[in-house]
Amino acid sequence: MLVGLYGPNTTRKQAEEYLDELEMLTDTAGGNTVEKVLQNRNNPDVSTYVGKGKLQELKGQMKALNIKTVIFDDDLSPTQIRNIEAGTESKVLDRSALILDIFASRAQTAAAKTQVELAQLQYLLPRLTRYWTHLSRQSGGIGTKGPGETQIETDRRIIGQRIAALKSKLEKLDRQRTTQRKGREGMIRISLVGYTNAGKSTLMNALTETNVLAENKLFATLDSTVRRHELENHEVLLSDTVGFIRKLPHNLIESFKSTLDEVREADILLHVVDGSSTMAHEYIEVVEKTLKEIEATNTKTLLVLNKVDMMDQEQVVMMKDEYPEAIFISAERGIGLSELEQNIEALIEDDYLSRTISIPISKYKAIAFIHEHANVLNEKYVGNNVEVSFRIAKKDFKQLSHLLDTIGAESQVM
Description:
The structure is a single chain. With about 425 residues, this protein is α/β, with parallel strands linked by helices. The chain has four domains: about 1-95, 3-Layer(aba) Sandwich (Rossmann fold); about 110-180; about 185-350, Rossmann fold (3-Layer(aba) Sandwich); about 350-414, Alpha-Beta Plaits. It is built from 15 helices and 14 strands. The chain has a six-stranded mixed beta sheet with strand order 6-7-5-8-9-10, with helices on both faces. Strands 2-1-3-4 form a four-stranded parallel beta sheet, with helices on both faces. The radius of gyration is 27 Å and the shape is elongated.
């Protein structure tokens, strides 16, 4: 059973769409949704989320339909979880626990497994009391001195030690990733970002003709996948990253920050959106909010509305009016990919300069730098100087300018 609320800040239609998303999450986790329940409340009940009367009603429905698990579309406090479990006599999950469960089942690499375990333990730590309620009969109730409290304190210490060890392991893995990224510093880096299931992996496959896992389930991708791609005038590195989602658990964002460095350090972001969804606007807002949270808002961004083949004409017109700069594509059917690549090329060109410089032949370091980092268009020798015409990225030209300053006044930009 899936349970959600709507009220002053959420319409019933929005709440229904949120439960549809929760159903997709449940399906991804291997669950089968039997019933969805929405309640109109101004605020969640502090002890039972839905109120005692509604809780009894849920218990009756679950018993009649033989439902063993209830999942809430919000985060629950330890007290709420304990009271709902007692009131319904069933297993209770909140949104964060469900997402963490999916991440745990999807994690393949050492980095992803470490990140997920860290997030799970950070989620579990404040909720430990709930797991020891069975001892309350022996110890006279939670909060009294007894074996329950002793065991909880022991577990807290063990979990704290494990969290410290996982953080240390992640720092080591992060240093390895940083070294890998340094090896790609000369390349133009493009990251695909977007709401989960927007079609990022399908777009990655369509552009690079590779077989990155792409399936119609949430969070198919956890680890960053990097592929080289040849545009008409530039070779770029494309990276596919974990999808964002509404109410993404804070612990997950924290533990996945090293993975999301691919996004922060990218030269260009392709913000991929499922344009056919009625929630496209909210998806865009969620991604922009998450990008702000991970401090990746100053990067050049192209808005890419995917699944145009599934949009009706009215939707297309409306979205073009609202997002005039957006590029409309279908990664699945290859529609609009040439226009997308042209727009990427145009963004890259904005970051390039054309220059002609006369440099003394003896200043081989500057000449070598130009050959390594720039596209040399022409080169000729005039006396003791070499005159080089080239195109170079603005960030590399800053380095070259510094190098030329150390050479002296004989070098001149023409």
